[in-house]
Write a structure and sequence with these properties.
CATH superfamily: YVTN repeat-like/Quinoprotein amine dehydrogenase
Shape: globular
Structural class: mainly beta
Largest sheet: 4 strands, antiparallel
Distance between the termini: 43 Å
Helix content: under 10%
Number of domains: 1
Strand content: over 45%
Oligomer: single chain
Strand order of the largest sheet: 1-28-27-26
Length: about 325
Amino acid sequence: MARTIVMFVVLAGCATRGGHAPSAPSLPASAIVATIPVGTPPTLLAMSPDGSRLFAASSAQLSIIRASDAQVAATVPIPPYTSGVAVTPDGARVLISSVSGVSLTVVDAASGAVRRPIPLIMDMHPGGFERIAVTPDGRRAYVANQVKEYLAIADLRGGPANQSLVDLRPSDVTLTPDGRTLYVTGCREFCTTGTVEALDTATMSTVRAFAVGSSPYRFALSPAGTRAYTTNIAAPGVSIVDVATGTLVGTVPVGVEPTGLAASPDGTRVYVASQTARTLTVIDAQRGAVVAIMATPTQPREVVVSPDGRRLYLSTQTAVLVLDTTRLGR
């Protein structure tokens, strides 16, 4: 139970300890395209499929940001303590979970209007719902519940939600582009070795499982779907796994408390935001080697990449930074 509580605290708020990595140079000024003030941290990020809007979900506030000019188009009140955010494949709706909520908050992506919430499993508070994965057809959302060790399966068309028990504490959920496989990342027991399970979404049965680093927190697939990446909290690093064989290819050390993870659309780079270390790490995906480690102005939390790969969005304690990827460790 102790491990569950620790991971939940990491999710619920920004850490206040730590500082810059001793040897990390600062982000180059030439790489910072814009600095966009947002709400109270932690700020989670999601991008519309066409790359036109960025959604920054802070505690009690959603900022809808235009990518074209890096300006906030609207701010929307949402429940406090955001724990997950996702955009539907058609780009029409933003789905938000919160630490104590038992439903998904739904925001119209174009107007910012708050729609009727989508119920999850009605359970005792706190709800404990966190990361969200939406099917390619936009019909369902899988929502991790780490504390209670199950997934809520929400009907985005308005039907009742279901639940699927898992044999680990899920910290992240990720769907393949075809929607047939759901990767569930998390911990069993004390989590000296983390686990990723691949589930067949038609049956919700485990197809295969593979081991990753201690206390995995975030999961990402390469664009080709051949490699998987996890950030590991307990032993700060990124595990690289060959998906076909389930073999651990290697582990790349990164800054303390890696909370943000994204792979570039061309598959050449992996970006990691380390909250306590206050660093952004750029990894060469092919070689599994660090290209650059850069200190951020304040503690970073999440990172997403634009569909064209030219912009990197990094949430910090005070703002979302828009970064030019061509000036990051090139």
